[in-house]
Records
---
Amino acid sequence: MQQKTSDINPPFWPKITIGGIVLFTILYLVAAQYYPGGSNFYPQEKGFSWFNNYWCELLGENAKNGQINRARPIALLAMVILSFSISLFWIKLPQLIPMKLWKSKVLQISGVLSMFSAIFIYSSYHDFSVSISLLFGTLAFLISLYGLYTHHFIWHFNYCVLCLFLIQVNSFIYLSSILIDYLPILQKITFILVFIWIIVISLRFFKK
């Protein structure tokens, strides 16, 4: 029996997810060039500091030095693209690691809510948005761990454990202010590692 074209050709959506992450990274780097300056640690610092500024400070209406933040429109566009791209990833992930329907739905809904909440980090509800995004993001990662383990994707499982651990460390530092000086750079390292995990998982769909 001849296979359907959809069964032969790889899915298109991983290209959207991977392309969205790459585009977010480019826009993020561009936005950083337009950030006037200042951070919580050094308000009068010039430009965007990779060691002292949080990524979300690019989304603020004003920079930490009080000037109008010219990076904001670019950063907002980058955030919307990233949220859509990773939401698509969470929606499609159960196709790679099938599980009971209710677990798949919780994974999909949690992942999408996490990314949707993250969009509002730019607003006055920053802390609330971060908390909601972390809550649902953690749930999505936990269910992913279950799926990866039961389907014997051991390397992906171990990497996912690392990502989830770093996310929780970020959360602990953010809430407790312990070692807060290291949070800006740790935040960026965590982003990079999570992006790599999502890209690697997305590429599995082409092999599948």
---
Amino acid sequence: MFHQITILANRIALACAVVGGLGTVGIMLLINADVVGRGLLSMPVPATAEIVSASIVSIVFMQLPFATAMGRNVRSDMLMTLLRSRSPRMETALDLFHHLVGAVILAVLLRYIWPQIHGAIEGNETVGLYGVFTVPRWPFVVAVLIGCALTLVQYVLLTASLAINLFSTRGAP
């Protein structure tokens, strides 16, 4: 059952990464259109900077769950390699601690992001330039919330897997 949950979580994380990748392509197209419009036609795309700045955070959080699932999060590979050669159990224990701290941080972050959705919807908050081009803020906050929640799930699954390996009766992880 644990293995099936991990597979499902990884597939959802991959789908979010694809959405984030498409968002990156969209930003690239928008920036290129702005540069071409500004340089050739003297007509820049309105609110490009505002749209890009709002989108970037959403894109990062949409790609974070898959990066976490694939072990591409920030850590010292040099230290982990050294520990692996000397004590595989110590490496697993440090990795478990790292993922546990990640889960706690994501849980705290999720707790602070959740109320912002209500504020963004109820307050009719927008991103862009008033009178020129605006878009609602709530889809960006929802994307961050989804990415944060799925990354939390990934950290919990990885922590559980490492704990199972570390404390199994087989000995070495």
